[in-house]
User: Fold this.
Amino acid sequence: MKSSLVLPSLDRDSRVALLVLGIGALALLGLIALAGESPLRILAILIGEGFLNRAGIADSLVRSIPLTLAGLGVVLAFRAGVFNIGVEGQLLIGAALAVACAPILSPLPSALSLPLLLLAGTLGGAVWGGIAGFLKARFGANEIIATIMLNYIAIQMVSWLIRGPLQEASGIFPRSDKLANSLRLPILFDGTRLSAGLIVAALACVAVWFLVARSRYGYALTVTGKNPDAARYGGIRPGVIAFSVLCLSGALAGLAGIVEVSGLHGRLQEGFVGGIGITAIAVALLARLNPIWVPVAAFGFSGLYVGSDSVARLTEVPFPLVHVIEGMIVLAFLVLQILTMAKER
Amino acid sequence: MMQTNHAAHTTVPVLELAHLSKSYGEVRAVAGLSLSLNPGEVVALLGENGAGKSTVVNMITGMTRPNSGQIRVRGKEVLIASPRDALDRGIGVVHQHYALVGDFTVAETLALGRAGPGRLNRQALHAEVRRVAERIGMQIEAGALIGSLDVAGQQRVEILKALSREVGLLVLDEPTAVLSPEDVARLFDVVRALRADGVAILMVTHRLADVFAVCDRAAVMHSGQLVCDLPVMDVTSEGLISAMISGSTDTVQESERMPGDVMPARQAAPANDAPTRVSVRDLALRRANGSQAVQGLSFDIRAGEIMALAGVDGNGQSELVQCLAGVNLPDGGTAEICNCSSDGPWSPRVLRHAGVAHVPDDRRRQAIISDLSLGANMILSHVFSRRYGRAMLDWSRARDDTSRAIDEYDIRTTGPDQPIGRLSGGNQQKLVLARELLAGPKVILAAHPSRGLDIRTIGAVQNILRQQRDAGAAILLVSADLDEIRALADRVVVLAAGGAFGPVDMAQTDTAQIGAWMAGHT
Assistant:
């Protein structure tokens, strides 16, 4: 019972998830054949470069850090039945707020400044998620629409910031100055780009798992998501849950944003989000909204990206293929979920 | 028109039911029912909740098929396979819950489900609305939006929709339950016009006033059987009530106290100085659709007392319980429970903290989370008490409590980790009861706690409520089952027709009186 809400066992649901992966792989093979390449060769490159050599694994891990953090945020919101589609905006605002705070933080000792920087990112994301949460709780606004619209606002805002107040001192490119070294997450292994963000992501996994499986708040989330009427009956206020979970979800997205900036890019620039927002949803769904499966799913997607980068470099198959696969996996997942639900009735 | 005037004089019944039976699992909903309706005849179908009225309606209208027996339409044996099939055979129905589209006009509604592809001929539809409305003297505007009509208006649209086809039989399911007296009068004018037109009408109702106002014959069902089928001029309201309640046809035409109808004496009546736990003053409640459910309701419940809330479903019982549980606020008046007032903070959390336990009527919707374990469901009512810890949940204690409840209440399950949705309804209900009674509540709101359960479980549930009463709980028992009320309650309030009768001491009333109140008959 201790972790009955999220136990890593191969129940029917997990088998469904595995089946989804298989279907995705099949679709991949079909598309590769369509592109005129040998599926086997492509598959060998994809898996070999993405998962099997040191550089590939390191790269996949690098990519899985923001996916894990943002995916955890999506897990929390989706568990409560709140559809946070605004990961991208929350991530951007988190990163932007932290970068804006950087000049104040950089004189401080690194042991203080780095945690504060991450905190600023978390806060920025929480505020951006909280706006949608407030709109939902107070006025009954649909969170899907609210978060999507807030994405557009965030994208334009950051675009303006890096051409205005936050632009680099030289004023040439639309990007911020590089963060001071004291504000960079240290690299864990020489010769890779793998930063201490990995540790942040791992800690976040544990924390979110604990929240979901053990805490009263996590229980309230699960109950609200599964049966809002029962939640109300038990004294849980769905409005409070919606607001707080969007704050939390946004906080994790904001953390993903600043970890990505501090650990990888070193500065705020356009396009650094690179579809993390949507992929995080796919990650959360593939993990069946179970926090301990999130890093696994995130690593799987990342490996797919890294591998297909190589595929695009070495073969005739175009890179956009991986987006097709990603979409297909999400779709197949939803279809199968509906099928199993229908069978239960 | 579908019926010429002389059709009223032919002897072939529009509809004939012969030895119709229907079972759901082991429950016999309808047993060997025979009933026939002649053209131009209005027949009332009466009965308590669960007497089998809806099943009869469903079989006539093709929603469900009988296990045995025959249905004859105009003397020809037929199989009614679907609602569309029923319509094709000239059987129209107006359900209690309307199936209308708010953004459509009245005329557009007629096209629903029968318009082919291509442009909608609105002119023809408008003309049709006017023609049918004129025929039966109904006031309705063809261009009005459904969403802008009140309940009575929407009902008129449903009737119109049914009559836009060739209809020989019109089934009206509880048509007066939601109408104001003026609208009821208008509805009856329509019914009379249809009768004059030779249409047979089957009116399912629980209001005796309807029977005497407009019906020609009264058919009463009890436990799935037809216990009375007499011309209205030969029955009295007392007789109908006793047929509905006891199923006894002997007493139909006399008014007398039924044998064994003496209220059982309580061993320990609540002391007069027992503290008042629940106090309701001049309470007004609205349904989810905005219509008035209850008005001017006042009563008190003292510690150690069971107050029964009787009445046919849909007369505001559910709204009252939801309000007292803190889920909804009253629309007027005040409710007070254990020093909490609906004028102050009023929510499930506040009231649970004050010691209110709540067994809701719709268990699956409100009281359980089907795919969570029994243990997780155990926590639901105690999330904000400190029983299972504060920020962190004490799952092992929840598990212990659940295991103990499984033993004590004899819940059939594989253990506290089994998803509650896999359990039978009775076992789910036992867990809900165990959970609600876990912390020794001061007030128990029990809505139909034994509905749908088997006899053994019903006995267990009733014993639990008695024990709680003796332990000093104030209990509000919502029930439509007069036997249960008689077995448990100290006092009773009856909700009917938007108002309340009582409360009265059970010792000072009898089932016939309560039944009459339930039928809205003073």
Observations:
- The interface with chain B takes residues 1-2, 4-5, 214-217, 219-220, 222-223, 226-227, 229-230, 232-237 of chain A (CB under 8 Å).
- The CA atoms of residues 208 and 291 of chain A lie 6 Å apart.
